[in-house]
């Protein structure tokens, strides 16, 4: 940067209209023995020979080659993504195994067990069993090829699930399984939905669906700094009704831990958990909310692709879809899926189930959705619509408590949008943020170390610096400007990854109306306060005395302004993270805004030189206010300004503070001026505005 800047400056000032003797009415050659360009380069201690332009180009090219070679070496020999090979003993595998079911096998490979013995949980449940039904569901989205047309992804889907049952939702890729689940769970925000979703026979609104159902998505998204127990407790307290005693909520957390086999890892931080552990946690978070929807009396609907026979036999009912969102089968599977097998074998043209073959795989291959498709022209949708299973479905759905309200079953009505009180929401959300920050040293320690490093870097450069000359004052103002901006820009960039990584879990929790977004905002802002002020203190303690500043009272205000500057940039980073679609876009847009604000904050170009058309940018630039406070504290503080004596050609009767000192070696275009006068007149950074600017910064924050 130094070589490039020097080459550019010499190229500009030693050529064209600036490499002259007379400029703006001043004869520099006769007055100083230098041309105008050489004179101003000399004021800043720069070389003036034109050969430095060539040296700068050569040095830049050399650095280009060096960095390219270092990049090659890094790509060749360094790879951080590759995990180390880990030897896992057989005992470790056995200890960590999570076995849901173990059954004896026949020689043919199919399950020979006729009954599954399951230990019943007799603890009191904090939910009302609910029958879920969906009637004539259609879902339309705009056609990407022709926005005026619509694509129908679901075509009149009917079905229901009763308490204590497990319903499988299966089909080929593109059949609409996930789409149907999203529609039932109220997760679709776009498109057009037609049809009814009913709970206990009453048509459900969006609030009822979100409050009394749990939805486990394909991606396991959690706040990774929490422990597994804390995640379950968070869900239990914020999603169960406020009227339920805390003791019962803790009981539900312990129940989920036992039910999912999480006892050994309950107090383990989520970050670094295996895929299998994360999936169990995802299920547990929803169960801890005690949704009103197999052995525990809940109603379960789940999508599954191609399960093994043992897993498939666990399901009570099946809703099978084909590509295009149409129903191929709905009904009770029967013992060992006998009903399903008999139905498909009764359709002309369908090959019978081979002995020992997985009925789930066979069924999918029959309709052309398996790994090896048995392609044929059978219209399975038409066969189902003409079958007895369709008639049974319609008769079952017409019963009370399914699509018709039943006097014996309650309507799911909620007086509040969210289960927990505002106080409970605030307590748990804010606590989680403070725990997350404490458990994320990669974020906080990194920025603390960077603050100390930046303070040392600028401090070493300006040790024993003098600020009473023209070049010294400009360098001093530039030092404060660069140091504070580097510190705040580092804070801006550092917060983006953390905020973006937490955003996904926020969206999942908000979809279930877990808490008000306001408390999330409160938590994210309060958690930053102690770290930003500690960061500002570390920077000030190192930087302030190293560069020659000694006033302790001013140091306190310097720390306060620095900390608020960092805090403002952190909050700006959070804002862009929440507003932009990705971390990368937030970084680019934030960099653009900061670049504009830096340009028009009054240092380069100085405030007096900003064109009138852009003064509005100067006035609104948030970066201007903390830098103005910092510069004014040091260079604009003077209670007793000296007076210029024409007779002696010197200042007299001035105060002892730095701002009261006359500026030495001032250019002829500047004339006689004090440090305070130059700082306020040229940079617009006035000591009288410090208090006002503090309020402006707080307003921006």
TrEMBL record:
It comes from the Eukaryota. Residues 132-374 form the ABC transporter domain. It comes from Phytophthora fragariae. PROSITE patterns: ABC_TRANSPORTER_2. Its main location: membrane. Gene3D superfamilies: P-loop containing nucleotide triphosphate hydrolases. Pfam families: ABC2_membrane, ABC2_membrane_7, ABC_tran. One of its GO terms (molecular function) is ABC-type transporter activity. GO terms for cellular component: membrane. Keywords: Membrane, Transmembrane, Transmembrane helix, Transport. It is a multi-pass membrane protein. It is found in: Membrane. The chain crosses the membrane at residues 52-73, 445-463, 475-496, 517-546, 552-573, 585-604. This is ABC transporter G family member 29. The lineage of its organism: Eukaryota, Sar, Stramenopiles, Oomycota, Peronosporomycetes.
């Amino acid at each position: 940067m130094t070589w490039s800047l020097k080459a550019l400056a010499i190229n500009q000032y030693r050529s064209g209209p600036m490499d002259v003797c007379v400029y703006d009415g001043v004869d520099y050659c006769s007055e100083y023995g230098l041309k105008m360009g050489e004179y101003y380069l000399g004021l800043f201690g720069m070389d003036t020979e034109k050969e430095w332009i060539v040296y700068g180009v050569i040095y830049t090219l050399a650095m280009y080659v060096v960095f390219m070679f270092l990049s090659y070496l890094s790509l060749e020999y360094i790879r951080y993504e590759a995990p180390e090979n880990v030897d896992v003993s057989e005992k470790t595998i056995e200890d960590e195994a999570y076995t849901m079911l173990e059954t004896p096998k026949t020689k043919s490979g199919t399950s020979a067990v006729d009954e599954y013995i399951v230990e019943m949980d007799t603890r009191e449940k904090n939910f009302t069993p609910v029958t879920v039904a969906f009637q004539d569901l259609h879902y339309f989205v705009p056609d990407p090829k022709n926005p005026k047309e619509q694509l129908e992804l679901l075509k009149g889907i009917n079905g229901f699930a009763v308490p204590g049952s497990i319903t499988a939702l299966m089909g080929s890729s593109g059949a609409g399984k996930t789409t149907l689940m999203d529609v039932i769970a109220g997760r679709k925000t776009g498109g057009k939905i037609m049809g009814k979703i009913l709970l206990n026979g009453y048509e459900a609104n969006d609030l009822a669906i979100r409050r009394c159902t749990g939805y486990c998505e394909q991606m396991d998204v959690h706040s990774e700094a929490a422990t597994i127990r804390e995640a379950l407790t968070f869900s239990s307290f914020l999603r169960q009704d406020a009227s339920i005693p805390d003791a019962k909520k803790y009981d539900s957390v312990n129940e989920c831990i036992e039910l999912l086999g999480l006892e050994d890892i309950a107090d383990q931080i989520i970050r670094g958990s295996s895929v299998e552990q994360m999936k169990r946690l995802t299920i547990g978070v929803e169960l801890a909310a005690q949704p009103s929807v197999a052995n525990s009396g809940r109603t379960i609907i789940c999508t599954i692709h191609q399960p093994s026979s043992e897993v498939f036999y666990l399901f009570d009912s099946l809703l099978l879809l084909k590509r295009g969102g149409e129903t191929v089968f709905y009904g009770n599977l029967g013992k060992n899926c006998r009903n399903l097998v008999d139905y498909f074998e009764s359709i002309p043209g369908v090959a019978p189930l081979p002995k020992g073959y997985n009925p789930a795989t066979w069924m999918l291959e029959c309709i052309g959705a398996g790994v090896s498709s048995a392609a044929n022209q059978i219209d399975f949708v038409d066969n189902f619509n003409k079958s007895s299973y369709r008639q049974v479905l319609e008769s079952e759905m017409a019963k009370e408590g399914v699509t018709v309200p039943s006097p014996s079953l309650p309507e799911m009505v909620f007086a509040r949008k969210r289960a927990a009180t505002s106080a409970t929401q605030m307590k748990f959300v804010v606590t989680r943020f403070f725990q997350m920050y404490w458990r994320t040293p990669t974020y906080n320690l990194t920025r603390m170390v960077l603050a100390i490093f930046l303070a040392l870097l600028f401090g070493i450069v300006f040790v024993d610096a003098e600020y009473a000359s023209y070049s010294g004052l400009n360098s001093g103002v530039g030092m404060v400007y660069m140091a504070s901006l580097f510190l705040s820009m580092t804070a801006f960039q550092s917060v983006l990854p953390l905020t973006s990584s937490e955003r996904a879990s926020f969206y999942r929790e908000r979809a279930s109306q877990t808490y008000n977004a306001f408390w999330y905002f409160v938590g994210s802002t309060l958690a930053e306060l102690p770290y930003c002020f500690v960061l500002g203190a570390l920077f000030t303690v190192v930087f302030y005395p190293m560069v020659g500043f000694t006033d302790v009272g001013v140091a306190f205000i310097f720390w306060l302004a620095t900390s608020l500057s960092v805090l403002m940039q952190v909050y700006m980073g959070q804002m862009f993270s929440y507003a932009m679609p990705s971390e990368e876009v937030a970084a680019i847009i934030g960099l653009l805004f900061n670049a504009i604000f830096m340009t028009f904050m009054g240092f380069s170009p100085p405030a007096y030189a900003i064109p009138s058309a852009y003064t509005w940018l100067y006035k609104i630039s948030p970066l201007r206010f903390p830098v103005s406070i910092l510069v004014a504290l040091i260079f604009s503080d003077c209670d007793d300004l000296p007076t210029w004596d024409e007779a002696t050609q010197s200042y007299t009767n001035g105060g002892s503070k730095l701002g009261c000192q006359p500026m030495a070696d001032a250019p002829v275009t500047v004339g006689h001026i004090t440090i305070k006068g130059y700082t306020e007149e040229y940079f617009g950074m006035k000591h009288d505005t410090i208090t006002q600017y503090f309020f402006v910064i707080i307003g921006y924050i």
